[in-house]
Amino acid sequence: MIFLENEHFKIGLLEMGAELRSVVNKITQNEYMWQADPSVWNRSSPILFPFVGRLKNDQYEYLGKIYYLPQHGFARNYNFDVISKSKSQLIFELESNEETLLNYPFQFKLQLNYELKENALELTYRIENAGNDLMYYSIGAHPAFRLNSEIGKYSIKFDIPESFNRQLLSGGLRTDQSENVEFDGTTLSLEPEYFKEDAIVIKGLKSNVLTIIDEQSKPYVSLEAQDYPYYGIWSKNPFPFVCLEPWDGIADQVEASGKLTEKEGIKTLESSEVVFRRITFRFF
Fold first, then answer.
1. How far is Cα of residue 56 from the mean position of the Cα atoms in its chain?
2. What CATH architecture does domain 2-283 belong to?
3. How many angstroms from the chain centroid is the CA of residue 19?
4. What are the tens digits of pLDDT across the range 117-134?
C-alpha cells in the first residue's frame, strides 16, 4: 500500500484500482474500512468506471458493434500510475490502452486525487475524453465502511428530509418495480433484511451528506457527494460493513435496449473535454 497521513489519520491506498483500502485513527487505532475479506467480499472501495452497475447480458451495442463488460466496468481491475505524491496527497492515473479499447472504444484519461485534510479525505475524479469522438461514460464510488458491531445497531442520517422508493433488482438489473422504504425521513435504521435481496437503489436523493451513526447516535463516518443522481446503500447480510455509493450512472433495466446511446444515466464528453467530480469522507 501507499500511505498518506497527518496527526489524526493514516490512509492506505492500492495502485490496483486506485482503491482506498485503509483508514486508521492514529489515536484509537480504529480501522474504518472493510478489509476485503475474500470469503465475503474482496473489495474495500472500488471505483466504478466506465459504467456503473450491470449491463443487460453484460454487453452493449455501439455503432452497430457488440461490446462486453462486467458489472461496474474495468477500472477497479487495473494498476493505476502514481503521477504525484506528497505526505497528504496522492494522484493516480489510468489511461485507455489496447486492452481497454477492445470492449470500451473510447480514449480516456482518468485521475483519482486523494487529499487528506484534518479528519476529511477528499477524492476528486478527473475524467478526460482523450479521443476525437464523443465519449460515453459513467462513474461511481463503492466505499465499504467497517462497523464495530452488528449492522442493525447503526443508522444513516440524511442532511435533508427524504422520502424514497428503492428500485428492485433482478440479477443485478433494475425491474419496473419499486418498494417504499419506510422511515422517519431523517434517520434510516440499517435493518439486515434490507440487504437480503441486494442494494437499496435510490433515484433522485436530495441529501448531499449521509452520516453513519452508532447506537448512541454518535457520528461514525460521513460521505458528502453533491448532485449525484443515483445512490446505492449496500451490505452483505449479516456482515458488519455498509457501503454508501454515490453514482453518476446506474444499472440497466431488465427491458433495456442495450444500445449505449439509450442507456439511462449515461454521460457524454466532447473531444478534449474534462469533467471533475468530488466526494468527501469524514471520519469521527
1. 20
2. Distorted Sandwich (2.70)
3. 11
4. 999 999 999 999 999 999
